[in-house]
Amino acid sequence: MDTSTPFQPTSTPFIANPYPAYAELRRTGRTHHHPRTDQWLVPHHADVSALLRDRRLGRTYLHRFSHEEFGRTPPPPAHEPFYTLNDQGILDLEGPNHTRIRRLVAKAFTPRRVEELGPAIERIAHRLVGDFVAAGGGDLLPEVAEPLPVAVIAEMLGIPEADRHLLRPWSADICGMYELNPTEDTATRAVRASMEFTSYLRELIRERRRTPAPDLISALIAVHDGDGTRLTEQEMISTCVLLLNAGHEATVNTTANGWWTLFRHPEQLALLRAEPGLLPGAIEELLRYDTPLQLFERWVLDDIEVGGTKIPRGSEVALLFGSANRDPAVFADPDTFDVRRPVAVNRHVSFGAGIHYCLGAPLARLELAASFGLLLREAPRMRLLTEPRWKPGYVIRGLAALEVEV
């Protein structure tokens, strides 16, 4: 372990509480080169926000350079199924392809479609929370936090109920590749999940071509631009996988991490139970205080300068969302969890910014409002049974379990 830096993403204590390390990084500079990951760490809110919008950076470089031209080693051929799936999703595209696909997806994944999911979200949340309360509690993670967003995304896509148990394991294996320096075993699982998920969706898309249904997959098949441009089959598959992965990981971890935060701040939990109208602002505060996505990577496509430090083309920057959300230059008393923090001044970056701002943010907020609202109302005496453990991942940071009784 390199003890010369407070940034220790493989350390269990750091994963459990990275915020003191972030404060040290903010205090000592605007950028820090981290040799173990060969990344430039960016801890300040102003820089993170600016670089999210800076077109001299990108989630990919392949729209402008080959791997060799960019000074990078191509991924092993054995990893190709993962990269084929990942690289056709709008999160990891830039340039004209990103613009085209996001425009087409936005025509299908409309605000109205999200709004229409409201009754389904409430119905699913009522069932999950009702069963959880009737059982006297248990592990909140697999009983409520995980199944709610997975069921909502599955319903939106039109995935049959009998197949929905496949989704969370596929997603977990694919998302393992978003951690820093993933192992070969992680890559093997991600490749297998990518192949299985791709095959499943390809068949479902073919079925929807034959028999359209009132679901998002059918809408993605039908949507087109004025010139007749449509999504390719691979673009539809990658979009569906991205909607599942990005559309539930944040909600799952915000739910579990959020309740852990509330249990550690009993006066804030009591305030929220007494004043349910505070819930929308409290959700934004939970997203700020302990964001589920701690780090967002981008490639430097043209030389940039941050705080007097030149970062050359070919470098990778690590935008530290968790640090930006605790920056005292932007947030008053940033280490204080305050459910009364006004939404208007809560400029957290948990959903990103710029062209890669999270397309599913409105859906995540609906799901979080439903589950938190019901648990606050239906389980007014819910309490923690054992202090939770954190999963080993740092980038997508979440609890391994959250045992409670109601």
Name the descriptors.
single chain; 406 residues; alpha+beta; Cytochrome p450; five-stranded mixed beta sheet; three-stranded antiparallel beta sheet; 10 strands; globular
Describe this structure in words.
The protein is an alpha+beta fold. The protein has a single domain (12-405), classed as Cytochrome P450 (Cytochrome p450, Orthogonal Bundle), CATH 1.10.630.10. Helix content is 50%, strand content 8%. Strand 1 and strand 2 (39-42) form a beta hairpin.
H/E element sequence: HHEEHEHHHHEHHHHHHHHEEEEHHEE
> What is the fold-level CATH name, i.e. the topology?
Cytochrome p450
- Percent of sequence in beta strands: 5-15%
| Weakly predicted, low-confidence segments | none
Number of helices: 17
User: Helix coverage percent of residues?
Assistant: 40-55%
Q: What would you report as the Rg, rounded to the nearest angstrom?
A: 21 Å
How would you state the average pLDDT, rounded?
94
Give a count of the beta strands, DSSP E runs of length 2 or more: 10
Instruction: Please tell me what the overall shape is.
Output: globular
What's the N-to-C terminus distance? 41 Å
Brief rundown of the structure:
The chain is of the alpha+beta class and 406 residues long. The chain has a single domain (12-405), classed as Cytochrome p450 (Orthogonal Bundle).
